[in-house]
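=== RUN LOG ===
request id: a7f3
mode: sequence -> structure
chains: 1
length: 259
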Amino acid sequence: MAVVPLARRARVRRAAVLLGLLVACSEERSAPDATTSAAPRAAPVAPATAAPTTTRSTAAPPTTAAPTTTLSLPVPPAPLVDVLDVEPTILVAISKVGADNVTGAPLPGYEANRAFLQPQAAAALAEVQRALRPQGLGLKLYDAYRPVRATQAMVDWARSQGRGDLVGPYIASRSFHNSGQAVDLTLVSLADGAELDMGTAYETYAPEANTANATGVAAQNRAVLVGAMEAAGFENYDGEWWHYNFFVPGAEPLDEPVR
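=== RESULT ===
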């Protein structure tokens, strides 16, 4: 075995120590940084997108109107009123709705058995009904408001029948009926609705229909009707015992149908 001098062994030991130190330093420099590199790299963060905001309007929210239903209920031609809305105990039997009239056929513009008048006339007619009640009597209406077209149809009928003589005295080419200022009517018993004897039938276009041309019971009944109607402001057309006018300033003719 070779013997290494002490001095050489000391040099070898120092060299080994230096080599160990160099290796350690090299490993330390190549080791990952515990404070930075050791942590995993964070994934890139997308730019923040602001949440959508809702602008609260100070105005009231729009309202959706409820669907309207158009009622088919008939209404009086303005400014007229339905007589039965004012006094429901009056009898209404409009002859021109059917064939029971002088022409023998329904007249144009009459589509329902209803009686319309100017409000003042309807109120006055209600007074007449109330005044007659203590006598056991009431009113029955044959006609009230008459559309212009119906008046013209009556005139045309008279002329077509060779009865042009009726136009004027009995069939007016311009009538107060057209503006709701006239009514054709008679008296009835409240007990059973029976018509009183007035001497002639309604629409008897003859001298006998003249209010003064009656005798006996018919004359008395006509007188009762005239007295009650005139007390409420109506005026009788003396050529027809059944016809009464109630004048309303400014009333205009209408051609709306009776519905």
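=== NOTES ===
The helical segments are 6-30, 83-86, 119-132, 148-160, 216-231.
The chain has a mean pLDDT of 81.
=== END ===
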